[in-house]
Amino acid sequence: MPTVTATKKKTVRINGCVASAQAAKYADVDVIAAYPIRPYTATMMALAQMVANGELDAEYIVADSEHSQLSIAHGASSSGARVFTGSSGVGVQFAYELYSPISGSRMPVQMMIADRTLDPPGDFGSEHTDALSTRDMGWLMGWACDAQEAFDNHLIAYRIGEDRRVLLPQMVCQDGFFVSHITSDVELPDSSQVREFLPPYKHPYPLDPRHPVSHGPQIMPEQGPPLQLERARAMEGSMAVIEEVHKEFGEIFGRHYDPWLEEYKTDDAEVVFFLQGGHGVTARFAIQHMREKGLKVGMVRLRTIRPYPTDRVCEVLSKFKVVGVIETNMGLGSPSSGGVLYADACAALYEAPERPLVISFMAGMGGEAIVLKEFYWMTEKMIQAQKRGKIEKRTHWVGFEE
Amino acid sequence: MSYTELTVWTRGIIMDKEGRDIVNSVSASARLEGKYAQAMENYVDNPDRTNAPTRKYCRVSDRVLENELTYENEHPNIVVLVEDTMVKGWDYMRGMPPGGTLIINTHYSPDYMLRFVPGVERLAQLVCVDAAHLAHHKWLYYRLGELGLDRLSTEGAAERSKLIAPDIAAPLIAALVKSTGIVKMETILPMIANKNAFEMALSEMKIMQFNPVAV
After folding, report:
1. Range A10-253 has CATH code 3.40.50.970
2. Preferred mutation among B68, B70, B74 to probe A, highest tally of A CBs within 10 A
3. Would you state the pLDDT for residue B14?
4. Inter-chain contact B47–A278, Cβ cutoff 8 Å?
5. Rounded CA gap, A253 and A2, in Å?
6. Matching CATH topology for A10-253 and A261-397?
């Protein structure tokens, strides 16, 4: 039985953190495992109020650390509960041990990440390194660029992760501050729409004393390969489900997302930004201004990074002359000596018959806003590379160079 | 093109709601008037500590806000001090373009307060309003039990009181709207809980006018 009160569609002005809490409420989650760390704290506090006010009937468990938080989430999911948890920055790291076991036991736990820099600098600002460092742990992962998209991504991710063809946990990410603390108009759906889109969760093999099953037992080495292959297949197989679910979401809610990439003014673009998350909002304004000056610049925003849409990225990015990857993450010693997005983009482009030049831009580090003039500067670098026919260097640190 | 930045300086926890009510009500009113507007708290000041200075921001424009993701108001046209001892110790005038307005909750006169204000040459007007008195605050730290929030932090918490400006924010909003015209009186008044204090402030506020020079 749904425990959420029936509600009509309405538009409210909320920030990304509250949008995530609202999404968890609409998803009628059973267990919330919480531990405070900014900026995620605002989400757990909003949920605590909902539970206290009787708006949401859920077990609200405050853990003693992020490690316990994810352990609780794992256990609750194993018993068949729909679980919501979340964290930021170093909190995401402290729970690291749990990410592989949760995806390994195929538990569709959902974790909200509001990005925060790791230490150093440890400030409250958004770098994607916290979540990205866990990107190969078998969790579905993607970034929203505003509060509405964050809300929608939570519902979409539950539906994908809980699909029996997938059964994988999901990290639903948003930039700290740029999404988590910026308010905008968010359309909250009619509860009947959510009921239609997201059926109650039912795990096929929950822990149940009446029907004993084993989860996560110690196994012998020879049992390892098939288990890993199964998980890899689940991740790969999720791609078809992801497309199907986004399509259905659009039909029910009227907001149609490309599951993989948002293309902005790319039709005749020669140089494009390739980025994730909230900076896409400012990128659009920068592109409008540069277009007025006749520059053929556009943006491709990656919406889902795990599973990585290799074929789609290859097909789309190979149309351009220069791709400027805006990293917003640290990949110390990575192939570009910059961030980690560059390597994935280049790998995807490797099989393209005609490859664009690829430049990595270290911008928005420490959670700094990427301002219009920095987008202009990066565009200039891309245009110079286009004219020259080769890049000046792989990685530019924006704000540190002429 | 008209673009206005409003920065409210307040004190963590004990007067946090007041600051938030000011920027939220102005932003909501501006949007009702068909403008683009945004209200937010300073991200780095939070989670706030009791008494620590915290800043709340509002931006109102007749064009879409392209700097929506910028953390701070870099050039505030209007500055509000929710508590009068804040007049010393912080450079709340930093970045203010000539022609600015400073509004202080104080029982002192603009004449008296002026000596503490850094960068007075940027001001077009200094407004003093005895908001605590008009809202029947015997003193600012009075009625702790009725404060909006718990004593830990306001980060992410909702107010216990759902009312907008039930308290010292109401006279401050009145002084702000009357002296700057940032939004129309008739748009914002219906939102204000303490209408009595709001209306009294309209006649009790003291304005000192200047001819600002470019700095």
Report:
1. yes
2. B68
3. 79
4. no
5. 19
6. yes
Q: CA of B46 to nearest chain A CA: how many angstroms apart? A: 9
- A147 to chain B: which residues are within 8 Å by CB? none
Contacts A13 to B, Cβ<8 Å? 28
B3-209 is classed in which CATH architecture? 3-Layer(aba) Sandwich (3.40)
Q: By CA distance, what is B158's nearest residue in A?
A: A46
Residue B66 has its nearest CB partner, among A17, A182, A372, at: A372
Judging contacts by C-beta atoms under 8 Å, the chain B residues touching residue A183 are 38-40
Report CB contact under 8 Å: B70, A371: yes
Structure-token pair, residue A399: 């704000």
For the stretch B100-133, pLDDT in tens is 999 999 999 999 999 999 999 999 999 999 999 9
Name the amino acid, one letter, at A319: K
Instruction: Return the residue matching tokens 């501006």.
Output: B30
For residue A1, the model assigns a pLDDT of 45
Q: What is the mean pLDDT of chain B?
A: 89
Domain boundaries, chain B: 3-209
- Which residues 1-60 on chain B approach chain A with CB closer than 8 angstroms? 28, 38-41, 43-44, 46-47
Three-state DSSP class for residue A33: strand
Query: Which residues are CB-neighbours of A29 under 8 A, at least 6 positions away?
Result: A56, A58, A81, A82, A83, A84, A110
- Which listed CATH number (3.40.190.10, 3.40.309.10, 3.50.50.60, 3.40.50.920) goes with A261-397? 3.40.50.920
- Please write down the long-range contacts of A377-384, taking CB distance under 8 Å and 24 or more positions apart: A378/A273, A378/A324, A378/A326, A379/A271, A379/A286, A379/A290, A379/A295, A379/A297, A379/A324, A381/A324, A382/A271, A382/A297, A382/A322, A382/A324, A383/A271, A383/A295, A383/A322
Q: How far is B42 from chain A (nearest CA, A)?
A: 10
Collect all residues of chain A within an 8 Å Cβ-Cβ radius of residue B40.
181-183
Domain range list for chain A = 10-253, 261-397
ipTM score for this prediction: 0.91
